[in-house]
Amino acid sequence: MTDSFHEPSVGTRTVWYSVAAVAFALGSITLYSSGVGLIDAKLHRAVGFAMALIIAVAVSQKRRAAKQAKLNTRPTNAPLALLIDALLVIAGLWSVWSFYFVQTQMEVALYDVTDKDAWPALAGLVVFLELCRRLWGWGLFAVGAFGVLYLLFGQDLPGLLAHSGFSLKEVAEALWYNTNKGVFGSITNIVLSTVFIFIIFGVLLEGTGAGDTLLKFAFLATRKTRGGPAHAAILASSFFGTMSGSTVANIVGTGTFTIPMIKKRGFSPTFAAGIEATASSGGQIMPPIMGAAALVMADLTGVGYLNIIIAALIPALFYYFSLFSAVTVEARRQGIEVQVMTMDDRITRDDMINSVLFVGPILVVIGSLIAGLSTSKAGFYAVVVLLVLSFVNPAVRREPLRLWHSFLKGAESGATLLIAIAAIGILVGSLDSTGLGLKLANVIASIRGESLFSALLVAMVGALILGMGMPTLPAYLIIILVMGPAIQELGVSMLTAHMFVFYYGVASSLTPPVAIAAYAAAPIAGANPLMTAFMSFRLGMAKFIIPFVFAFYPTILIIEQFDLLSFIGIVARTCFCIWLFSSALSAYDRRKLSVLEIGLRFATAFAMLALSAWVYLPAIVLGVLLIAFDRFKSGNTPSIPRAAT
Fold this sequence. Notes:
Helices cover 75% and strands 0% of the residues.
C-alpha cells in the first residue's frame, strides 16, 4: 500500500533533474581534468565543492524521504526542512564564492584575510559539518567539530592540549582560505584530481554488468573446494573491492547473492555474514585499484601508485589465504563436503565475452601506469575503454541508459566523499596550526619507549579506536596524521608506516562494537549483528597480524629492501603461521583440537615470525609436528560427513 504523499511532486522532480544535471557536470569536469587538460586549482576546488554541496543536500533529502516511505509516515515539518536545506545551499555557495574571491585577490595583490571574510568561512564550516553529519554520521562530524572548537577554545585547555590561541579571522585563514590545509587543502586536491575518476570508474564497472560475470568465475574457480560459495564469496569480494573500494558496497554487491548460498551449503547464518563482511573489507587492500585510500597514499608518500600496488600485493594475498583457511577449517568442523556444480554455475559464451568488461580496463590501468602516465590519466583511459567495451554486453545494448545512471551515481559518490574530506581537512588544518599532532606523537613515543613492537602495538590500538565507525579513507587519514610520525621515528619507512595504518583503517570496520561491515552483512543473513561482528573479528584476525609482519620484514613489500631468499623464507613462514593461527582460532583442523594443542599452535604461530633463527626454526619444527600429530589422530578417528541442508 502506498500513499499519495509518497509520490514526488512536479517541483520535487524538477529539483531532482537539476541535481542530475549538476552531477553530470561534476562528472564531466572530472573527466576533463583527468584526461584532457588541467583546470585552475582554486577554481577546480571551488566548483567541486559547490557542486558537491548541491548534490549532498539532495542526497540527504532522498534519504529522509526514503526513511519516511519505509516507515509509511507522513512527512513532518516538510516546509521547515526544505527551508533549512535552501539556507544550507545559499550559505554554502556564499562561503565557497568567498574562498574563490579571496584566493583570486591573493594572486593579484597583497591581500590579507579580514574580519569580514571570517563570517562566510564560519558559515561554510557549519554547512559542511552539518552535511557531514547527515551523510556520514556523528563520528566524522565530531572529528571536524573538534578541529573548529579546538582552534577557537583550545587555549583554555590544561597542559599538553593548550595552544597560544586563535582569533576568528585566524581560524578562517587556517581552515578555509588555505590551499595547503583545511577544507580546500592538498587532500581535497588529491581527491578531485586523482580519486574522483576512479570512483566513477568503479561505479561504471559495476553498472556495465561485470559483477555478474565475476561472480560466475568465482564460483567456477572454487567449485571443487569444501567451502564452495563461501570461498567464492571471498574471491568475488576481492574482485568487487577492486571495482568499488567500499566495504558496504562490496557486501551489497556480492552478499545478497553469496550469503544465501553459503547458508544453503550448511554454514550458520552468523558465519555466512561474517565471512562476507570480512572478505568485503579486504577488497580495499587488494590490487590493482584498492579504492580511494590507496590513491591518496600514493600522493602523500610520493612513491607512485604503481609501487603502492606492488607493495600491497603479497600482504593482500596473505589476508585472503587466511580467509580461505578459515573457511576450510570451518567446513571440516561442520562436516561439509564438496558438492557437484550445477548448470547455472557454468561459464557461458556470453560470460567469456563480458569478462573483457573487467579485464580490459584493468589492463589499461596497469599498462598506463607502466608506461609512465599519471594515475588520473590511467583512470581516464580506463573509463573511456570501459564505455566502448560496455556495448559487448547485450544488457547494455538493450538498456544503454544504465551507463548514464552509473555515471551519475559515480559523481554522486564522489560528491559525498568530498563532504567527508571537508571534515578531514578541518582536522588537518587544526592539527597543523596548533602542532597537536607532534605533541601526540611525543606522548606516544614516551609510552612505547624505544621498542618498535610497543610503538606498533600502541599505534594499532589507537588506529582501531580512531577508525571505528568511519569509512576507510577518513579513518586512514586521521590515523596517519596522529600515529604516522611516531612510527616513523623508530626507523620505519614512510611507505611501511602508511601501509601499517592503512591496514588498521580497513580493519576498524570489523572491530566490535562499531563494526560497520558486520552490521551491513548481518541483516542479509538474518544473523545477530553483534555476534556477526565478533565472528568477523575472529575470521579477519590475520589482518591484525600481517601489518606487523611487513613492518619487521619490509622485504614483503617488494619495493623496499627486497632480498629473494629472505622474501621466500618469510612468505613460507607467514603462510604456515596463518594456517596454525586459523586452526587454533577455530579449535579444529582435521579433528577437534585439545586446549593444549590450541595453546601450542598459538605460541608456535607467533614464534614462527620472530626475527631470530634460534626462535623461528624450532617453531617451524614444532609446527610440523603439531600438523603431523593432528593428521595421525584424525586417521584413527575419522569424521562423519554431514549432508548439506
